[in-house]
From TrEMBL:
Keywords carried by this UniProt record: Acyltransferase, Membrane, Transferase, Transmembrane, Transmembrane helix
Positions of the Beta-ketoacyl-[acyl-carrier-protein] synthase III C-terminal domain: 429-509
Pathway in which the depicted protein is active: Lipid metabolism; fatty acid biosynthesis
Organism: Vigna unguiculata (Cowpea)
GO terms assigned for molecular function: fatty acid elongase activity
Active-site residues, Swiss-Prot/TrEMBL: C259, H338, H430, H434, H463, N467
Protein's name in the database: 3-ketoacyl-CoA synthase
Length: 534
């Protein structure tokens, strides 16, 4: 009843003095009841649609003003012949030189202010993904044998891990730290964490500096993200010490931000580059598997053991205009969504101790539902920035229709009841969706109505390298480059989600076609992919 009353509004109308009848000479009133429009402007969906359009308008004002100026100028000039135009310009310059010089000065000043105030383009020069040695490679059966020999798990826990592994979408060539494979003791030590961090970070950075021919001392900004392992001194300090980087480098270390922190690190580097011209920024994304290896019996904490694997990415960004010709990609958009205000979302991925005081990462059974809600908010904000106008019109129209008439079930077609999912295949040529698990990829593909080809890079990355946390979206882009499928002008959407709960998107535009990559983690096996998955 409360919802029904909210659809109506009451209004008291003064009808004046009654002229006849039993109430003649009396002041009379009537009550008018009207149907009120639903307050759809407060809807979460429309709220984020408005936010997306707000971004679009802020950056698209020139698209409205420049055509108007061109039309006015064309109308003025078009009324004169070529001879009259030159004659008018010569006479103005001859008899009113001061006005001409002043106008030219204003023009140059305005143009200078425009180019100085506009955001600098951010270029991705190149990136590298660490590929561990083959001695760290383990199959699913070998991993189960390691778990069994450790003596830490009972039979019920072992069977649970086996079921998770066999249905995970992970193959038999992923990588585990040597400490996990070779020892049954506690691997969550600072010594083992630093050893793994040194291996993966320095391996990726060595390759990056070699590929880009940039010296470590030339880097002005360093951003490192690792969710679980956060020693003192920090991981960013380890890198600065190892490469003897310059003393005035701006370094940042992001911790506890989950698998979507790679996009957050790129966003932070972008903001710093906007304030510091002519600079390089390096973004390192990784996770320490051995330090987070759980040896207890809580099933929700055993899940990370089944999915997370070794990996690290290093990305070189630049705001130097002279890097335009050698850059691979240009940054287009970053959209970040945080659902941490909701308690269920906040505790969805949660690090804590179990009943035996063993530390682990607890994965909630509500992960799919919470992730879907965060994804919906993120893509609703991203849509107006990237979708063609036709898709925006359909999406916005059906959204308004559902909010206006959603409560009316009679006479409404099923197509109008179902929310319209924009066709993001019209906005992007390539999709890099965080390779978390087969179940999550299945749900994302179904909800976004993506094809198997769109999801190929994500599924193959999960199969070959497992869930490498925040670096997985770069292994996926490396897969596309190894397949030579990225062409000049193509748009790449990297989508990641993680603890908090967060869902973040970054959009790149390819500056050139990538062919015959000299260093790539897929080179020794790309001919075997796409593989047939069980």
């Amino acid at each position: 009843m409360a919802n029904e009353r909210d659809l109506f509004s009451a209004e008291i109308v003064n009808r004046g003095i009654e002229s006849s009848g039993p109430n003649a000479g009396s002041l009379t009133f009537s009550v008018r009841v009207r149907r009120r429009l639903p307050d759809f402007l407060q809807s979460v969906n429309l709220k984020y649609v408005k936010l997306g359009y707000h971004y679009l308008i802020n950056h698209g004002i020139y698209l409205l003003t420049i055509p108007v100026l061109l039309v006015v100028f064309s109308a003025e000039v078009g009324s004169l012949s070529k001879e009259d135009l030159w004659k008018k310009l010569w006479e103005d310059a001859r008899y009113d030189l001061a006005t001409v010089l002043a106008s030219f000065g204003v023009f140059v000043f305005t143009l200078s202010v425009y180019f100085m105030s506009r955001p600098r383009p951010i270029y991705l020069i190149d990136f590298a993904c660490f590929k561990p040695d083959d001695e760290l490679k383990v199959s699913r059966e070998e991993l189960m044998e390691v778990a069994r020999k450790s003596g830490k798990f009972d039979e019920e826990s072992l069977q649970f891990q086996k079921r998770m592994l066999m249905s995970s979408g992970i193959g038999d060539e992923t990588y585990i730290p040597k400490a996990v494979v070779a020892s049954s003791e506690n691997t969550a030590t600072m010594k083992e964490g630093r050893a793994e961090a040194s291996m993966v970070m320095f391996g990726a950075l060595d390759e990056l500096f070699e590929k880009t021919r940039v010296r470590p001392k030339d880097v002005g900004v360093l951003v490192v993200n690792c969710s679980i392992f956060n020693p003192t001194p920090s991981l960013s300090a380890m890198i600065i010490n190892h490469y003897k980087m310059r003393g005035n480098i701006l370094s940042y270390n992001l911790g506890g931000m989950g698998c979507s922190a790679g996009v957050i690190a790129v966003d932070l580097a972008k903001d710093i580059l906007q304030a510091n011209p002519n600079n390089y920024a390096v973004v390192v994304s990784t996770e320490m598997v051995g330090y987070n290896w759980y040896q207890g019996k809580d099933r929700s904490m055993l899940i990370p053991n089944c999915f997370f694997r070794m990996g690290c990415s290093a990305v070189l960004l630049s705001n130097r205009r002279r890097d335009y010709s050698r850059a691979k990609y240009r940054l287009e958009h970053i959209v970040r969504t945080h659902k941490g205000a909701d308690d269920r979302s906040f505790r969805c991925v949660y690090q804590e101790e179990d009943e035996q005081k063993l530390k682990g990462l607890k994965i909630s059974k509500d992960l799919i539902e919470i992730g879907g809600d965060a994804l919906k908010t993120n893509i609703t904000t991203l849509g107006p920035l990237v979708l063609p106008f036709s898709e925006q019109l359909l999406f916005f129209g059906t959204l308004v229709w559902r909010h206006l008439f959603g409560s009316k079930t009679d006479g409404t077609s099923p197509s109008m009841k179902k929310p319209y999912i924009p066709d993001y295949k019209l906005a992007f040529e390539h999709f890099c969706v965080h390779a978390a698990s087969k179940t999550i990829l299945d749900e994302l593909q179904r909800n976004l109505e993506l094809s198997d080809k769109n999801m190929e890079a994500s599924r193959m990355t999960l199969h070959r390298f497992g869930n490498t946390s925040s670096s997985s979206i770069w292994y996926e882009l490396a897969y596309m480059e190894a397949k030579e499928s990225v062409r000049r002008g193509d748009r790449v959407w990297q989508l990641a989600f993680g603890s908090g709960f967060k869902c973040n998107s970054v959009v790149w535009r390819a500056m050139r076609r990538v062919t015959n990559p000299s260093r790539n983690p897929w080179l020794d096996c790309i001919n075997r992919y796409p593989a047939t998955l069980n």
